[in-house]
Amino acid sequence: MFIGPKEQDIIRNRFEALQKPVKLLLFDAAIDCPTCADMKQLMEELTAISPIVELEVYNFHTDADVVKAHGITRIPAIVLANEEGKDLGIRFYGIPSGYEFATLLEDIEMVSTGKTNLSQQTLEALQAIKEQVHLQVFVTPT
Q1: Do 1 and 8 meet the contact criterion of CB atoms below 8 Å apart?
Q2: The domain containing residue 50 runs over which residues?
Q3: What is the reported pTM?
Q4: The 3-state secondary structure of 17-63, one letter per residue
Q5: Residue 99 belongs to domain with CATH number
Q6: Residues 48-86 pLDDT 10s
């Protein structure tokens, strides 16, 4: 078990604010992915906490059309999608642990509610960007 009872209660309380369903698309493989089984178990435990958060699992090698549609290049990977299944461009590669797990929870909340914690000034600055932007954040456990 990755998410203990105390943490489950904390997440359950956070997820009470969720408004619309969120889909977590997990891309994994049974072979050549030593962390995929752990990622799948973590996502199963997370989605079991709330019926509004759903898990869809795709095999990186055999579900090539879905992999290509979402531009998945490595595994394990999580894609966040809204209730219609629209890919919102939010990706997690590797197991989101530590601070990254908190970020995943916050991202689920943002997708479900349609609200962010960004200031009005930041939202206006983002709307002023006219060209395509590809942003990646890399983290490493310490």
Answers
A1: no
A2: 5-127
A3: 0.91
A4: CCCCCEEEEEEECCCCCCCHHHHHHHHHHHHHHCCCEEEEEEECCCC
A5: 3.40.30.10
A6: 999 999 999 999 999 999 999 999 999 999 999 999 999
